[in-house]
Amino acid sequence: MKLLLVEDNAELAHWIVNLLRVENFIVDCVADGESADTVLLTQRYDLVLLDMRLPRLSGKDVLNRLRRRRDNVPVMMLTAHGSIDDKVACFGAGADDYVVKPFDSRELVARIKALIRRQSGEKSGCLTCGDLQYLSNTREFLHKDAPLTLRRREHSILEALILRQGKAVPKHTLLERIRGLSDETSVDAIDIYIHRLRKHLATSNVQITTLRGLGYILRVKEVLPV
C-alpha cells in the first residue's frame, strides 16, 4: 500500500513516515499544499494523510481540488483542533476520517488500515490463495498459519498480486506501488522482487507466473496428472 503524507511539521512528519514504513507502507511526504496538489495530479495513492493547516494551500483546499477532479482516494485529515466546525469543514470537503493531534501511534495505524479496508470493500478480513493467507486487518501474510517475513517492497508487490489474484497485474502497476517520489527504481527492479518472492513461496502451493506482455499473476499451482 502506498500513502501520501502532507505535513509541514518536519519532526512530526519524520515520526509518522518511520511509523508507517515499519508497518510495510510505502510513504511519500510533502510539506505544503501546492506540492501536494501537484503530486496528486500525477501519482496514485491508496490513502492520503492531509494536515488541515498547511503553507501555500490549506489542507481543505487541497481536498476540495481533489474531489472536484473526481478523485476518490481515501483522505484522513490531521489537525491540532478538534472543534465541531473543523470536523464539519473536513467532512463537508470530502474527508473520509479525521484525527486530532497529538494522536497515539497505534490508533493512527489502526484507523489507516480500517479506512483502506473499508474503501476496498473487504469485509472478511482474510484473503486466501492456496495455503497463502492475507489478513487485511493487520496486512500480514501467513503461510500454513506461520507469518511470512517480507521486506517492505516485497510485501507491497505480493499485496498487489493477492488483492487481484487470478488476474494479471502489469509491471508498471507494481512499479507505481513501490516507487516513491525520491526513488529512481526502474521497471527492471520488479523482476528482482518477483524472484525474491518466488523464493519465499517455494514451499507453498501458490506461484507467481509471468504472462509475457501482460505482467504477473498469483494463482494456485496446477497439479499435473500422474
Automatic annotation (TrEMBL):
TM region positions: none
Domain Response regulatory: 2-116
Gene Ontology cellular-component annotations: cytosol; protein-DNA complex
Residue list for modification 4-aspartylphosphate: D51
Family annotation (Pfam families): Response_reg, Trans_reg_C
A single MF term (Gene Ontology): phosphorelay response regulator activity
Domain OmpR/PhoB-type, residue spans: 124-220
One GO term of the biological process aspect: regulation of DNA-templated transcription
PROSITE patterns linked to this entry: OMPR_PHOB, RESPONSE_REGULATORY
InterPro entries for this protein: CheY-like_superfamily, OmpR/PhoB-type_DNA-bd, Sig_transdc_resp-reg_receiver, WalR-like, WH-like_DNA-bd_sf
Matches recorded under SMART domains: REC (SM00448), Trans_reg_C (SM00862)
DNA-binding feature ranges: 124-220
CDD domains, per database record: trans_reg_C
Keywords noted in UniProt: DNA-binding, Phosphoprotein, Transcription, Transcription regulation
Protein name: Response regulator
Species, as recorded: Paraburkholderia acidisoli
